[in-house]
Write a structure and sequence with these properties.
The complex is a heteropentamer of chains A (about 180), B (about 190), C (about 100), D (about 375) and E (about 425). Chain A is an alpha/beta fold and about 180 residues long. Chain A contains three helices and eight strands. Chain A folds into two domains: about 120 residues, 2-Layer Sandwich (Beta Polymerase, domain 2); about 35 residues, no CATH class. Helices cover about 20% and strands about 20% of the residues of chain A. With about 190 residues, chain B is mainly α. Chain B has one domain: NADH-ubiquinone/plastoquinone oxidoreductase chain 6, subunit NuoJ (Four Helix Bundle (Hemerythrin (Met), subunit A)). Chain E is mostly helical. Chain E has a domain of about 290 residues. Chain E is about 70% helix and about 0% strand. The chains are: A alpha/beta (about 180), B mainly alpha (about 190), C mainly alpha (about 100), D alpha+beta (about 375), E mainly alpha (about 425). Chains in contact: A-D, A-E, B-C, B-D, B-E, D-E. Chains A and E meet through loops of A and helix 17 of E. Strand 6 of chain D pairs antiparallel with strand 1 of chain E, so a sheet runs across the interface.
Chain lengths: ~180, ~190, ~100, ~375, ~425
């Protein structure tokens, strides 16, 4: 059975190895400062914790900032750690890339870049992956587009579009973004 | 050889052969020229059949159409696209004059010479006779041809083999000097 | 009119002439080889025609010559194409008028 | 000719697009291969032809409404996707699944694994150049499994069977005899496949030593599933992080030796055998009782997040679901094994021939629906 | 057999009677050239009449047999038992638009479907359907077969080049490399046969088998195998269909061909397969001859049955085996088939000399030779298998079982060091 690492213990170890790398710990994850992310991950992947398997990498749009969520797994010791990094700038978020540490981050970071618009510093090949080059905006952001008549918020049209050549939406008013 | 069939065969094959040869001459595309050459080879094979030289005809198809032209097509593919045109050099007009002279002289000789006794019936069973004369009267040339073929094979392999040092040196020189204009494009 | 030796000889002369022109005037090394092949074919045709129409001591000795010529032509074409490849590799062209160095 | 002559390059590399319409990309997957003769110098994958923006759409639907989306992520293993998503939401909302529901989930997930591996192995041998025959043989069992699915939930591919808190229906009574007869004949069938393929000289020549990825590289590239196990890493979430009732079941994890295409093929073949073992135990031991917990239709889990993963046929299939306390997920992310398994594609194919690249791609067993989502 | 029955034109056992009757009748009133033209026309029409319907049946047979091999039904909707499926296919192909890629070499693009058809028809001319049923009994028949079937490669090459498609070009390159190599193996195989029988006439080879009262596959198993494999390569059929490898280069040289042009390629592929089966049957299975049965049963039916047998082998191979890679095919050809071919040429020369010069008792000599040749064949193949490390007994071990050793690299290393018989 995979053990979820005690976040506080990991945070203390991280603070010992990489000073000022962990500003806080929330209920689910250790939150690492973006500036110290690579060092912190290098420490975590090392022999002390053996979190050498990047199980999943994704990002969450928290409207004011982005959260990058890393699930790190140790196969030999069978424990799992959720790591988070905050990208403060909501317009042009940028975090260091983990491709140097994990080859597996390559495609996942491209995916996050493509859909969330988060730049990864040091990624060797940061291109759009699913969407075509020149696609306007980043669709997984909360402020991208709202589908009319549905439950969640969003922009009524593509950000660059002027009012008249929007997608025609019969008989419905665009949902105003709430914040 | 005075039957209708013979006339028909000879004239159509002659037109195919010479026409295809002229096609090589005028064609600007090397691959088209190659196809014309193959057609010409096939025409010549037909003429051999007309001359009752079945064995030679089949060998013509086997060697020229089956092997040599394929080899040439392969060589064309191995060269770059830019080198696949079939343009002429400055030798065009001297070549034309020389061609006219040679044809005229040969035709004159061919028509004016008395070729002696003319055989009406062809020699039958050409393959067997050729085989026998190859290993009886012509056994020395036969062996020499074998040696020549082997030497050619080895030579071709040795020439076309590509040493790794060669590539490196060559690519270095390319990057230093830049690539020469290979002339012509398609 | 019967189709006789002369017909084939004239045909061979025409073929030889065209081949000569192609071999002389074409710029591409492979084109030149095509011309050479045409000339060889013309000669072969003439030889076979002689063998068909003219009595000889050894039956079909001309055909034996033709077989030799075809064999040598095959060898020649292999070496010729290999040469063309080498020239291309070293000079980056197979234009015969650009291969004007006797040494490299 | 479409081949461009680059200025200073002496030998001309040829760029060949394998896909998006190509017999062996199993979908609209485009592999841009730069070839020197037949040797692959570089590969670049251009994907997204099947991108349906599932993750965005899911943010607009309630938690329950999202289950059909998961069917369409990996349309060859819909049950696994259902299961993984439901596990994530249950983790998020703290829902306990009744015992029979858990056993039924294992039953259908394992059936799905057999069906998916049959497809994977069939198309793999197809990519080696066989003329459809292995595929047709393996489709035979897949058909029967799909019939079982149809019996249970009315659909064959997009099953939409798992529910948050259990499964949608108790299977009909006629499922059990059909399942038992399938399980009875499976060992024979597997022997037949093995006899036809595993020591076939041509299959060996084509796949042994091709597309090798070492254990270190596989771990570093986050590979999972048969790829990781084919490289010799004994890692299976059913054992390592058991969900449902896998900890009560007796089965083995096959592990490859060299990490080549052949090993992946053999690992999949062996996993089918292990799945049959599991299914036999399920048929014997499945308890009665309810199969679904009482879950409100408009589920509103408290704000929070959950990451649940299962061992899908293709590897670690995880769903990361974030709730803000509303009726819809705030974030819905699928950790797609097909996509991440492609991380090592370049290392596996460069320097070998085009034919090997095709075989390697076949052995990765991609599903484009899952890559693109 | 009464002589009058054999000579009569309605004797089904020897359909050449019809041709002879008609030709003689034409010669009785018309000029000589007309008679020979009519005789040629009869042969051509006869061959076309054989090929046309046979192709239709073949398409159906191939699909049906492959379907059976693949546990499915195959065509069963159009006509009784799907027999009209080929007709429906043909109608579909004819009605389909024939696309020409814009960048294709227009002139050359038209050529290959025609070019590929001519040799496919020509080779039928030297196939003996019976003792007299042969359009042209060339005394260089074997060479003719090789020469004409070898020209296929040109058509295929031009098709690949003219389509201006990279897949097609790859197919063309592959087909040239492979066909030239395998043609050498095939030439050596036929050379062995010619050495042993002492004739290049194809009918002569059948007559030799009749005279010696044995079929050549018994005497020359390796040669027969080489011929079969060479034919497979020449026909681009699995396991050597790298020229149109579906999973790699889509359809190879005929990727860009659609409509009836593709139909021609497809028909020629089948016709060539059929004719190669027929030649395989003629060279190695005795052709129209079958230990005296040919006096009772029409000889062409005997040939047809033997051809169907060989054809079934081709279908069987296609339905069973995956494809080899081009380097493996080349290795196989140049390291096994060609050296073995040379060896058997020498063996055949020695055996022929022994038979002729020393006039050994054939009832003893031929079985002894068959045994020796079979032994050499087994030895050669065994040696090749040993060198390349092939062999069913050397199938690699299956996967290991983790058995509780779950984990990452450390566990992987432990598992790798564990005794291999752990499962």
């Amino acid at each position: 059975m995979t053990v979820l690492l005690d976040l506080q213990v990991v945070a203390d170890q991280l603070r010992g190895a990489v000073p000022e790398s962990v500003p806080r710990v929330d209920t689910w994850a250790v939150i690492v400062d973006a500036g110290h992310l690579v060092e912190a991950v290098r420490f975590l992947a090392g022999s002390a914790l053996d979190l050498s398997f990047l199980a999943s990498l994704t990002a969450v749009d928290r409207e004011s900032h982005f959260e990058l969520v890393y699930h790190l797994q140790s196969l030999d010791r069978n424990h799992l750690l959720t790591l988070k990094t905050i990208a403060e700038d909501h317009e042009t978020p940028c975090v260091p890339s983990l491709t140097g540490e994990y080859r597996g981050a390559h495609l996942q970071e491209r995916e996050v870049f493509d859909l969330m618009g988060i730049r990864f510093e040091g990624h060797p090949d940061l291109r759009r992956m699913f969407l075509w080059d020149g696609f306007p905006g980043y669709p997984l952001r909360k402020d991208f587009l709202g589908m009319p008549g549905t439950l969640s918020a969003g922009l009524p049209g593509f950000p660059h579009e002027s009012g008249e050549n929007r997608w025609p939406v019969p008989g419905s008013t665009p949902v105003i973004p709430q914040s | 050889m005075d039957g209708v069939g013979h006339h028909l065969a000879f004239w159509s094959l002659a037109v195919i052969t010479v026409g295809a040869a002229l096609g090589i001459l005028v064609s600007r595309n090397l691959i088209h020229a190659m196809v014309m050459l193959i057609l010409s080879f096939i025409g010549v094979a037909g003429l051999y059949l007309l001359l009752s030289a079945e064995f030679i005809a089949v060998v013509q198809i086997l060697v020229y159409v089956g092997a040599i032209s394929v080899l040439m097509l392969f060589a064309i593919l191995l060269t770059p696209r830019a080198a696949r045109d079939n343009a002429e050099t400055a030798m065009r007009y001297p070549g034309l004059i020389l061609m006219g002279l040679v044809i005229a002289a040969t035709v004159f000789v061919a028509l004016e010479t008395d070729w002696g006794a003319v055989r009406e019936e062809p020699v039958a069973e050409s393959a067997r006779i050729i085989g026998q004369s190859l290993i009886n009267e012509f056994v020395l040339p036969f062996e020499i041809a074998a040696v020549l073929l082997t030497a050619a094979l080895v030579g071709a392999v040795a020439l076309a083999r590509r040493d790794d040092e060669d590539i490196d040196a060559h690519e270095q020189s390319l990057t230093l000097e830049g690539r020469e204009d290979s002339g012509g494009s398609s | 009119m019967t189709i006789g030796l002369e017909h084939f000889l004239v045909l061979g002369a025409l073929l030889f002439g065209v081949g000569l022109y192609v071999a002389l005037a074409k710029r591409n090394a492979i084109g030149v080889l095509m011309g050479v092949e045409l000339m060889l074919n013309a000669v072969n045709l003439t030889l076979v025609a002689f063998g068909r129409f003219v009595e000889s001591e050894v039956a079909l000795s001309t055909s034996v010559f033709v077989v030799f010529i075809i064999a040598v032509a095959a060898a020649e074409i292999a070496v010729g194409l290999a040469l063309a490849m080498v020239v291309y590799r070293n000079r980056d062209t197979i234009n015969v008028d650009r291969v004007n160095l006797l040494k490299w | 000719m479409a081949i461009e002559t680059p200025k200073r390059v002496h030998s001309e590399p040829v760029v060949v697009n394998i896909g998006p319409q190509h017999p062996s990309t199993h979908g609209v997957f485009r592999l841009k291969a730069t070839l020197d003769g037949e040797i692959v110098q570089d590969v670049d994958m251009l994907i997204g032809y099947l991108h349906r923006s599932m993750e965005k759409l899911a943010e607009e639907r309630t938690f329950t409404q999202n289950i059909p989306f998961t069917d369409r992520i990996d349309y060859l293993a819909a049950m696994s996707n259902n299961l993984s998503y439901c596990l994530a939401v249950e983790k998020l909302a703290g829902i306990e699944v009744p015992l029979r529901g858990q056993w039924l989930r294992v039953l259908f997930a394992e059936l799905q694994r057999i069906a998916s591996h049959a497809m994977a192995n069939g198309t793999f041998v197809n990519d080696c150049g066989a003329w459809q025959t292995p595929l047709m043989y393996m489709f035979r069992e897949r058909e029967k499994i799909l019939d079982l699915f149809e019996m249970t939930c009315g659909a064959r591919l997009t099953t939409n069977y798992m529910r948050i808190g259990g499964v949608a229906f108790d299977p009909p009574l006629e499922l059990w005899p059909a399942l038992c007869s399938l399980l009875d004949e499976m060992p024979d069938r597997l022997e037949e496949y093995a006899a036809l393929t595993v020591d076939n000289e041509i299959v060996l020549a084509r796949s042994k030593g091709v597309g090798v990825v070492s254990a270190e590289a596989a771990l570093n590239a986050s590979l999972s599933g048969p790829l990781l196990r084919g490289s010799g890493v004994p890692w299976d979430l059913r054992k390592a992080d058991p969900y449902c009732v896998y900890d009560q079941l007796d089965f083995d994890i096959p592990v490859g030796r060299d990490g080549d295409c052949y090993d992946r093929f053999r690992v999949r073949l062996e996993e089918v055998r292990q799945s049959v073992r599991i299914l036999n135990q399920v048929v014997e031991r499945i308890p009665g009782g309810p199969w679904q917990a009482e879950v409100p239709l408009h589920l509103r889990p408290a704000a929070g997040e959950a990451y649940a993963r299962i061992e899908s046929p293709r590897g670690e299939l995880g769903f990361y679901v974030v709730s803000d306390g509303g009726p819809t997920p705030w974030r819905f992310h699928c950790r797609a094994p097909s996509l991440i398994n492609l991380s090592a594609l370049k290392e596996m194919t460069v320097g070998r021939s085009l034919a090997d690249a095709i075989v390697t791609l076949g052995s990765i067993d991609i599903v484009v629906g899952e890559i693109d989502r | 057999m009464s002589a009058w029955l054999l000579a009569a034109w309605y004797d089904l056992r020897d359909l050449s009677g019809i041709s002879r009757e008609i030709t003689e009748w034409v010669a009785s009133w018309g000029p000589e050239w007309l008679a020979s033209a009519v005789s040629g026309a009869i042969g051509a029409i006869g061959i076309l009449a054989v090929i046309g319907p046979t192709l239709m049946i073949l398409i159906w047979t191939e699909r049906k047999v492959i379907a059976r091999l693949q546990v499915r039904y195959g065509p069963n909707r159009v006509g009784p038992r799907g027999l009209l499926q080929p007709v429906a296919d043909a109608v579909k192909l004819i009605l389909k638009e024939e696309l020409v890629p814009r960048a294709a070499d227009k002139w050359l693009f038209f050529l290959p479907p025609v070019l590929v058809f001519i040799p496919a028809l020509l080779v039928w001319g030297v196939l003996p359907f019976g003792p007299h049923m042969q359009v042209a009994d060339l005394n260089v028949g074997v060479l003719f077969l090789l020469a004409v079937s070898g020209t296929n490669v040109l058509a295929v090459f031009i098709a690949g080049w003219a389509s201006n498609n990279k897949y097609a070009l790859f197919g063309a390159m592959r087909v040239i490399a492979m066909t030239i190599s395998y043609e050498i193996a095939m030439v050596l195989a036929l050379l062995t046969v010619v050495f042993l029988t002492g004739t290049m006439s194809i009918n002569g080879i059948v007559l030799w088998q009749q005279q010696e009262d044995l079929i050549l596959i018994v005497l020359l198993p390796m040669t027969a195998l080489t011929f079969l494999l060479g034919a497979t390569a020449e026909l681009n059929r699995t396991p050597m269909d790298i020229a149109e490898a579906e999973s790699e280069i889509v359809a190879g040289y005929h990727t860009e061909y659609s409509g009836m042009r593709f139909g021609l390629f497809y028909a020629v592929e089948l016709a060539n397969t059929l004719v190669m089966s027929a030649f395989m049957a003629t060279f190695f299975l005795g052709g129209w001859w079958l230990w005296g049965l040919d006096a009772w049963v029409p000889s062409w039916i005997i040939l047809l049955v033997k051809t169907s047998l060989v054809y079934f082998v081709f279908i069987w191979l296609r339905g069973t085996l995956p494809r080899l890679r081009i380097d493996q095919l080349m290795t196989f050809c140049w390291k096994l088939l060609v050296p073995a071919g040379l060896l058997f040429v020498a063996i055949a020369a020695v055996e022929r000399t022994l038979l002729l010069e020393y006039a050994w008792d054939r009832t003893i000599a031929l079985p002894v030779m068959a045994v020796i040749n079979a032994a050499v064949t087994v030895a050669v193949i065994g040696a090749y298998a040993r060198v390349t490390g092939a062999g069913a007994h050397r199938a690699p071990a299956g996967p290991r079982m983790a058995r509780g050793r779950l984990g990452g690299l450390r566990a992987a290393r432990q598992l790798a060091q564990a005794p291999s018989g752990s499962d």
